[in-house]
Amino acid sequence: MQLMSGNEAVAAGAADAGATIGVGYPGTPSTETLESFARIDGTYAEWCTNEKVAMEVAIGASAAGARTLVTMKHVGVNVAADPLFTAAYTGVGGGLVVLAADDPGMHSSQNEQDTHYYGAAAHVPVLDPADSQEAYDFARQAYDLSEKFDVPAIVRSTVRVSHTRTPVEPRPAGDVVTKGYEKDPSKWVMMPLYAKARRIDQIDRIERLAEWADSCGLNKVEMRSEDIGVVCSGAAYQHVTEALPDASVLKLGVTYPLPGRTVSEFASKVGKLYVVEEASEYLSDAVKALGVHVDDPPNPLPAAGELSPQAVKEAFGMPEPPHKPSPEALPPRPPALCPGCPHRTVFKELSRIKAIVTGDIGCYTLGALPPLSCMDTCVDMGASVSMAHGIELALAGQDHRPVVAVIGDSTFGHSGLSSLVSTAYNNGTGTVCILDNRTTAMTGRQGNPFNGVNLQDRENHELDLEKVVRSLGIDDVRVVDPDDVAATRAAIKGATSADDRLSVIVFKRPCVLLDRRRDEPFFVANCTGCGVCLTLGCPAIGKEEGTGLSYIDASLCIGCGQCAQYCRFDAIVR
Asked: CA separation (Å) from 320 to 235, 314, 316, 323?
């Protein structure tokens, strides 16, 4: 028996099922899955530039007969959808399993969405583990399912299942015979001539999958009260059994295709049937589509966010006593860029010139918060460059503030590069700031093409950001150390001063969590109380109550000296 998170369990289950190749793009709450897989002997694992590429690598490996794991978070499924939908036509060679980790509550995401809908739209089976043991078992069984029905399979996790550790009893790894590659254009070349025939195969496969869903043993009926029955899946099952211990429960391990006979039989045994799910109506609508009547709970379930036992109790008219309020003196802890973050001076200088700043996905999104308050948009990976071009087009011919896109090095590799290619191709203007902190910081400091670090420390190739950008025909390219405030200010002023060209500034300095060297801390001497240092939003800088004078917490200061460069009175010294 081992204690594993859901992510670790999926990785172990995949490896014990004979998966030898793992690919993906890091994204919370899925990241640790591929990292865990990479640590297992006999596996090959790599971070790809984005989820679409990862899915395509996985399809290629599968076509050659290897059992393959591809991992991503829910918004990554959007990026991977193109090859995923067609892979549902081609089918597989070796088993192909997609770990898609949803994020109800948006703990680290820009939206809530339910991957069940992708399974239904692409007609690929979806398995929903409720704990780490099921994550292991379902991942392992998904490979047999994939090969039996010639289809990719999705294991859908959520943030609680992905990150909660529960006991797992692994089973001995079985022997898997690799098929090898067999030439078959009618299966793998999806031109209309062949795709039409594969579509017919897909329809037949859906019918056989529906029959399998009722007999596979992954759905569990727990009969208790005959008055109330609840249909649920995944993490919602844990909340339901805690909140409604007397209710009968149908826990669905297969959520697409829905096991229709199992659902109907369960519904016939209870007086009232309810469906409990997180921030979605997928399961409720699917049960109703079977012709099964679904009752509404006395109070509506939360329409957004994660479920909890308390939320389920409240929906069924059983509110818990209110929790004690937090002490009034508890200090707030707003999110902020780390002390010494190399992104801070870039946002400070963009704020000084009142630029329109289109942002991107990454920890630098925190530049939108006070006191920097310097980010106007954030939509998806790579959107900063594309949206900046769109704003420039809309404001063409008008007297407007500088338009600046801000994007990280990993996100630039993910999808910002293609956006910049499009902007350059169409003679776009404006300024693009690439914040190259030498890592994929927000998801745990993974490698990317521009730092050359790969997942298993193999020999690699680091791409040169400046040369890549110049190869697009962009002549105005500058590389700047953002800890040098004067150089940062000059670069931004020079790049934004002309409205007839496209300029790119690469701000290059390692993330402070990557390079943990510390210099002597600074302190404040003879503060005038002007407050300029406070506008940097550095967690190491505070304001004394009563006097309003600034101070520096030496336990947090890393000695970067950014604040000292902004102090006009030389009051910040080592």
From this structure: 20, 7, 11, 8
Residues in the chain: 574
The whole model's pTM is what?
A: 0.92
- Report helix angle 260-268 to 192-215, nearest 10: 30
Distance of CA 147 to the CA centre of its chain: 28
Structure confidence by residue, pLDDT tens digits, 491-507: 999 999 988 999 999 99
In the 8-state DSSP scheme, what is residue 330? P
Please state, in angstroms and rounded to a whole number, the distance separating the CA atoms of residues 473 and 192: 37
Query: Averaged over 9-14, what is the pLDDT?
Result: 98
Q: Residues 191-249: pLDDT tens digits?
A: 999 999 999 999 999 999 999 999 999 999 999 999 999 999 999 999 999 999 999 99
Query: How many other C-beta atoms are found inside a 10 Å radius of the C-beta of residue 277?
Result: 22
Closest C-alpha among 199, 66, 205, 87 to residue 143: 66
3-state secondary structure of 78: helix
| CA–CA dist 476, 499 (Å, integer) | 12
Helix 485-496 to helix 344-352 angle (10° resolution) is: 50
- Residue 465: the pLDDT is 95
Average pLDDT over residues 470-477: 97
List the one residue out of 400, 433, 438, 411 whose CA is nearest residue 502.
433
Antiparallel, parallel or unpaired: β 165-168 and 21-24: unpaired
Which are the contacts of 550, defined by CB distance < 8 A and separation ≥ 6?
524, 527, 529, 531, 533, 534, 541, 542, 543, 544
- Distance in angstroms (rounded) separating the CA atoms of residues 352 and 154: 47
User: Could you report how far apart the first and last alpha carbons of the chain are, in Å?
Assistant: 53
Strands (E), 465-508: 476-480, 502-508
